[in-house]
Structure formats: C-alpha cells, structure tokens
Amino acid sequence: MMGVSRGRLAVTLDVLTDALVLVGQHGVYCQSARQPGKPAMDIQIITKQIVDAKDLIASVMAELKAARGQ
Predict the structure, then answer these.
(1) 8 Å CB contact between 58 and 13
(2) Is residue 45 assigned to a domain?
C-alpha cells in the first residue's frame, strides 16, 4: 500500500515500538536511586534514543509521501 521504501520504514517503526515497550517494562523494575518513580538513567537514555529514531523515521516517511504526491 505504501510502496517498498515506506513499507520497510513502517515495519521499522513497529520494531522500534516493540523495543520501546520492552525497555519500558524493564524500567519499571530498574528504578533510579536519585529520582524515585523514574527509570534508571540508562533506561531513560535508551528510551529517548528510540523515540528520537522513531521521530526521524516518521519524518522520512512523510517526506517520501510528499515527494510521491508531487
């Protein structure tokens, strides 16, 4: 439906979402000693990197869609 490139990027987003869920579950058990109620710092960094990667992929998908519409 989306074409090969956008389809592959969509699957990549799904994989990253699954990774984000797993990291989030791990973060429940690995709490920060300095910030009670928050995941450990390494979990926070990993989560931010995955979210940033998802945002980048989503922006590339939007650019591909716009280029296809022109």
Answers:
(1) yes
(2) yes
pTM: 0.85
Residue 16 counted as domain residue: no
pLDDT in tens, the chain (70 residues): 678 889 999 999 999 999 999 999 998 889 988 988 899 999 999 999 999 999 999 999 999 999 988 6
Q: What is residue 1's predicted lDDT score, i.e. its pLDDT?
A: 67
Residue 24 belongs to a domain:
no
Cα–Cα nearest to 7, from 66, 57, 69, 67: 57
Residue 33 falls within a domain, yes or no? no
Which tokens in the block code for residue 46? Answer: 């990993």
Q: How far is CA 70 from CA 39, 63, 64, 65, 67, in A?
A: 44, 11, 10, 9, 5
Q: How many domains does the chain have?
A: 1
